[in-house]
Structures are given as C-alpha cells and as structure tokens.
Specification:
Layout: H1 14-24, H2 33-40, H3 44-53, H4 57-67, H5 74-108, E1 113-114, H6 118-125, E2 135-139, H7 145-154, E3 158-159, H8 170-173, E4 176-181, E5 186-191, H9 204-209, E6 212-214, E7 221-223, H10 226-239, H11 245-255, H12 261-270, H13 274-288, H14 297-300, H15 303-311, H16 313-318, H17 329-342, H18 345-354, H19 360-365, H20 376-392
Parallel strand pairs: 2-5
Antiparallel strand pairs: 1-2, 3-4, 4-5, 6-7
Length: 414
C-alpha cells in the first residue's frame, strides 16, 4: 500500500524532522543527503530537548552510535549516553520490582496483567534499555482491587488519594489507582479498566483468556495478547494526542509483529476503536515510515482516521506535555474538542449523559448525609448552575472534571 498519507509535516522544525528521520531509519541503513543536511545544521540543544520530551532518547542514542559521524558534537553523545545509562538502571529496577510483585500476587491468588513497562520493552524492542518507563501498570479484576491495595500497602507503597467520589462514580469515571514507594522511588498504577469512561473495552476475563507469558525473567509474567495490546496502546496514545513519539514508535514495532489483522479489525470494530486504530497507522506510516500492508486496509478506510491523524499534529508540532498542568488555555480548549472528536457516536451520547450523574463537586457544594446522596440526582442542575454563578462573580474555579476533558488524568510520561 502507499505510505503517502495526508499528514502535513512541512512546518515541523528542523530538529523535529531530524528526530523523525533517525527514528524511521532501519538498522544498518544509511542516511539520505537531505537527512545528512539536517544533521549538520541541527540546533543540538533543541534536539536533545525534543528527544527527551518524546521519550525516545534510548533509540536515538543507538542510532547516533550506528552513524559514527564527526558531525555529532561530543557533548551530545555524552548526554545521550548518560540518559541511556540512567534509563537502563531504571528499567532494571522496574524489572526487579515487577518480579517481586508478580510473586506476591501469585501467592495471594491475584491474577494480574502487566500493561506496559519492561515486559512491553522486551516484547517490542527486544531490549528493556531501548524503551523508557517511569512506573509499572497492571490490570486486576475489580473484585480483587481492595486486596491488591492491601498487598501494596504491606509492601510499603502509599496510595495517592486523588480520586474524589460520590455514589461510586469512581468505578467508571476513573480507571486506575496510583501508589508510590517512598524509599524505592517506584510508582505502580493498578487498573481495573484499560481506559476511563465512556470507553467500551474487553473485560478482564476476556483479556486474561488471551494473555501471553513474558520470558523476561524466570518467574511467569502475564501481559496482553498482541491484538489486545494494539487496542490498549492505540487508545492510550490517541487519548493523549500522540504527544510523545515513543507511543508511535511502539506502534511501529508492534505493526512489524505477526498480528492477526482480521481478528484485530473485529476487535477494534466491536469496541468502537477502528478509527483510532487507523489514526495510529496513518501517523506511524507518515512520521516513522512504518509500512502499510494490504491486510491493514480496513483500519485505513475511514476518513475520520485521517482527520484525527491530522488533528494530532497540534500536539507533536508544539511539543505539548499534557502531564504538567496547568495547561495553556488554548491547549485545554483544543484538547477538550479533540477528545470529543475521538469518541464514537455511542460514546458521545454516554459522555453527555454522564453529566446528569452526580459529581463529587456536588457533595462539596451541598454536603448531605450519605443516606440522602440520592438527592444529588434531581439537585445536580441547580448545584452546577450555582457553581457557574459563583465562578462568574469571582469565586473559585470549581469545574467538574468532565467539563474539562483536557484535564490530564495522569502525571507521568507513560
């Protein structure tokens, strides 16, 4: 298939074009004359900042080593070498922690699927040092969430209580809890869903039935099947605007594996992610020269996939970091509209309907005894209007979380 998809990159900075040129290079391949020009005229400080922002510096370090050219300043090679070394230590520490957690979960009879981190680095890159990760993400059944929390507390982890809830809305408005280990400096995110509402996704039992076993360490580590991993990575990357090229590099690596594209198409269509899968393929092809093959055509047939791919250029061109609030107002406004555009028609209806369900802010505006919390349903429009009026008169900005879709749910470089 033709890789010439309509994603405009003409206004990318020279450093971003160089970064993409290096990422699209296959092992052992040389650079074109145009790419050599980019290399010689680069602002290396800006280039280093880009590589760090996009979390692709381990791969860039390896590519620059392969080029063996005097046009790369020594301080650049030195900085990338240092970053690569630090990341390797971080990934080894995460691998050790993952092994310990897996052992404890097995002892407690808790089934867990590791979603990202070292297992994905080993699977996609063949080397844990070539992918960055700052935490461990795992998925457990909802009915084992409380026991998982107790287990982590017993291991010295402290829960980040950032979730406010009323009438158990946390079960569907959110999708993970965050735990930090103060002495180890490790963060663990425990998921009960792959994505927040209003996503439609496979249940835990279905995902578990298609699990794979990682050979990274001697103890069995379970993680997502290839098609389920594709669904998870595209939904996660799309929700964050593909604002880090590492997520697209993951997709390129996964596209080169032996995916069952017919099975994947059915899976994405069932859960309303077909257009998002197409967005990821368009971006990987245009930005990283990932090959498009005939079996991928069903994912690329939607015009919406092309439009969404173009929409994500807003994040990549501007080096936007959605994980460090507060965001500029124009970014917040754009991200809110972008997230709504990502949704299928069914998801949009569910999202709009969710405004009728009470929010924690309603309980803060008018505290009621727990047994009277059902009254927040008829009172919600009035409480929402009261907060809006208070804001207009100079009061605090007390917006509902879902009113600001662009509010980042994770403070990490996942």
């Amino acid at each position: 298939m033709n890789n010439d998809v309509s994603v405009h990159i003409g206004d990318f900075s020279q450093e971003l074009r160089l970064l993409l040129a290096l990422l699209e290079m296959e092992e052992g391949a040389g650079m074109t004359f145009e790419q050599w020009e980019l290399l010689q005229e680069a602002d290396w400080h800006a280039f280093i900042e880009l590589a760090r922002h996009h979390r692709v510096f381990p791969t860039i370090h390896r590519k620059l080593q392969e080029l063996k050219t005097p046009h790369i300043p020594l301080f650049v090679s030195g900085l990338f070498q240092r970053d690569y070394y630090r990341n390797t230590l971080q990934m080894l520490a995460l691998s050790g922690e993952m092994e310990q957690l897996s052992s404890r979960f097995a002892e407690e009879g808790i089934r867990a699927l590791f979603l990202k981190g070292p297992v994905i680095a080993a699977d996609l890159y063949g080397d844990v040092s070539l992918r960055t990760s700052c935490d461990l993400d795992l998925l457990v059944p909802m009915d084992r969430l409380a026991r998982t929390e107790e287990l982590l507390a017993g291991l010295g982890y402290e829960k980040d209580d950032y979730i406010d809830s009323v009438l158990n809305d946390w079960k569907w408005r959110h999708h993970h809890l965050t735990f930090h280990h103060p002495s180890k400096g490790i963060k663990v995110e425990v998921h009960w869903r792959l994505n927040p509402s209003p996503s439609k996704e496979p249940g835990f039992e279905e995902l578990w039935s298609r699990r794979r076993v990682s050979s990274l360490i001697s103890r069995p580590i379970f993680y997502l099947g290839r098609e389920d991993l594709f669904l998870f990575l595209v939904s996660h990357g799309a929700r964050h605007g593909w604002s880090r090229l590492r997520w697209l590099l993951d997709m390129k690596k996964l596209m080169n594996q032996s995916l069952d594209w017919e099975k994947l198409t059915r899976l994405l269509k069932k859960h309303h992610y077909l257009h998002i899968g197409g967005q990821a393929l368009f971006l990987a092809a245009r930005l990283l020269a990932a090959p498009l093959r005939e079996e991928m055509r069903p994912l690329l047939a939607s015009r919406k996939a092309e439009w969404l791919a173009e929409d994500s250029m807003f994040y990549i061109k501007r080096m936007i970091n959605l994980h460090t609030p507060p965001l500029p107002k124009d970014v917040t406004r754009y991200h809110r509209q972008y997230l709504f555009a990502l949704m299928s028609n069914r998801q949009k209806l569910l999202h709009i309907a969710s405004f009728l369900y009470p929010y924690p802010e309603d309980a803060k505006t008018l505290p009621l005894p727990v047994k009277l919390h059902f009254l927040y349903f008829p009172l919600r429009p009035f409480l929402w209007a009261a907060r809006k009026m208070f804001k207009k008169t100079g009061g605090a900005d007390d917006r509902d979380p879902q009113e600001l879709l662009g509010k980042p749910e994770e403070k990490k470089g996942a």
